[in-house]
């Protein structure tokens, strides 16, 4: 298989070869490397995290490169997942401090964030997009969308909202859960930005697959999100305060 030069400014993965492996072999290799940090390309994964903020479209150029070299779009290196898990843990500590949680409640909060907000929601969203993309977006039956790739798209789209809502938002949290209208606008706007990031990066993930069509349908959710944002400002509905109450109720014994 011939190599195609990538135009992305991201560094190329450290581990790549021309050999094509079966799906079962790829899954086994991925799981086997999950706890072997010396075999992970953390530099490449860190570059992806950075570019998901400043130029997410360039991240998917490297997914195209992976398809050309390894016959799969999905990641074969768990380094990105490890860094995302670490960042999720770190931001959850910040939330626990702001919410003044005990250690026991922090553990409950962390388990909810990891297994419900990230993984649970990700499994559901990935499965829905996997079904829709293969059922309605494919131009032919010669290729199909890998479920693992749809989950990777979710993880990509999840990182910017996680940083905005679980890190940046913490610096204004005391004011955001109050009654001041200025902070309400700031908080709700951060939620709008996070939602737009998630939708746009998800769109990029599927539009980058050349055998799919009509992926722009995903962007139709943007006007809905903007309408909800305007509605919250008109009704003075504080999204951050509602989330605060939800988080507190979730960790109560």
From TrEMBL:
Coiled coil: none annotated. InterPro entries: UNC-50 (IPR007881). Pfam families: UNC-50. It is found in: Membrane. Keywords: Membrane, Transmembrane, Transmembrane helix. Belongs to the unc-50 family. This is Uncharacterized protein. It comes from Oryctes borbonicus. The lineage of its organism: Eukaryota, Metazoa, Ecdysozoa, Arthropoda, Hexapoda.
């Amino acid at each position: 298989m011939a190599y195609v030069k990538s135009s992305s400014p991201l560094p190329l993965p450290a581990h790549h070869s021309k050999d094509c492996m079966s799906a079962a072999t790829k899954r086994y290799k991925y799981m086997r490397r999950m706890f072997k940090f010396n075999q992970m390309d953390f530099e490449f994964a860190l570059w992806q995290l950075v570019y998901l903020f400043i130029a997410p479209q360039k991240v998917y150029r490297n997914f195209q490169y992976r398809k050309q070299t390894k016959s799969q779009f999905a990641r074969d290196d768990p380094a990105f997942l490890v860094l995302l898990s670490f960042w999720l843990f770190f931001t959850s500590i910040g939330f626990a401090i702001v919410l003044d949680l005990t250690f026991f409640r922090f553990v409950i909060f962390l388990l909810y964030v990891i297994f419900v907000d990230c993984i649970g929601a990700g499994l559901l969203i990935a499965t829905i997009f996997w079904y829709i993309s293969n059922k309605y977006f494919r131009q032919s039956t010669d290729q199909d969308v890998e479920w693992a790739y749809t989950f990777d798209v979710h993880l990509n789209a999840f990182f910017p909202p996680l940083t905005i809502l679980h890190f940046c938002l913490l610096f204004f949290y005391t004011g955001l859960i109050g009654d001041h209208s200025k902070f309400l606008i700031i908080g709700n706007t951060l939620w709008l930005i996070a939602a737009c990031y998630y939708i746009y990066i998800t769109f990029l993930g599927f539009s980058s697959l050349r055998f799919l069509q009509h992926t722009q349908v995903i962007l139709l959710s943007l006007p809905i999100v903007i309408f909800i944002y305007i509605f919250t400002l008109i009704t003075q509905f504080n999204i951050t305060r509602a989330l605060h109450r939800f988080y507190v109720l979730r960790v109560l014994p």
